Structures are given as structure tokens and as C-alpha cells.
């Protein structure tokens, strides 16, 4: 069974050195778990990042999308897939100065959560005999 609270604790560990929010969402942008100041912030970040991720993925169906780094007026987003879900880290201006740290944190949390999320997706969508 997937425990969003445990995933939230893992995501919370990324919140330093300019990272102000981290979230796991479905490919449609529905939050599974997050670490952010408010629910509204997390919902907004999830909707924007999932929309951009899916738009790019559809338009470039012959290229495997590994990650996106999106520079915004208020900060920076690092978006990647984790199994069939999407991981998004949101950085402030400090994170914009060192994108490598943001990417390294994203890859580390992705590697940590990928197997449990893949197992969850497989068990959630399998048809019992």
C-alpha cells in the first residue's frame, strides 16, 4: 500500500538550499503527495508543471523526455517522471543560481521513490484473477 505521509516525509528532505516545494502527482496533475507551504501552492505548481510536461511529451512523441528545467519569473521548476507519475521540485532565486543542485536533488528523490511508485501503479491497475 502506498503511504502518502511517508512519501511526503521523503519529499520534505529536499526542502533546503533554495528548494521551496516538492510534489508527486499523477500525469493529469492530481497531487499524490507534497511538501510545500500551502495546499494552494502545491496545487498550482502541480497543475502548471503537469500541463507543460504533457504538452511537450505529446508534441515530441519520438523523443524520450527525461526531465525539464523551467525558468519562471518567481523561480525555477525541475520536472521529471517517476514511473507513471510526475515529480516536480520548485526552487526560488537561490536555486536558479545552481541548477545542478536542483537536478541532483530531483534525481536522488526520483531514484529513492521510483520502485515503490512503479509497484504501486502495477498493483493498482492489475486485474485480479
TrEMBL record:
It comes from the Eukaryota. InterPro entries: LAMTOR2-like, Roadblock/LAMTOR2_dom. This is Roadblock/LAMTOR2 domain-containing protein. GO terms for biological process: positive regulation of TOR signaling. GO terms for molecular function: guanyl-nucleotide exchange factor activity; molecular adaptor activity. Belongs to the GAMAD family. Residues 8-91 form the Roadblock/LAMTOR2 domain. It comes from Rhizopus delemar (strain RA 99-880 / ATCC MYA-4621 / FGSC 9543 / NRRL 43880) (Mucormycosis agent).
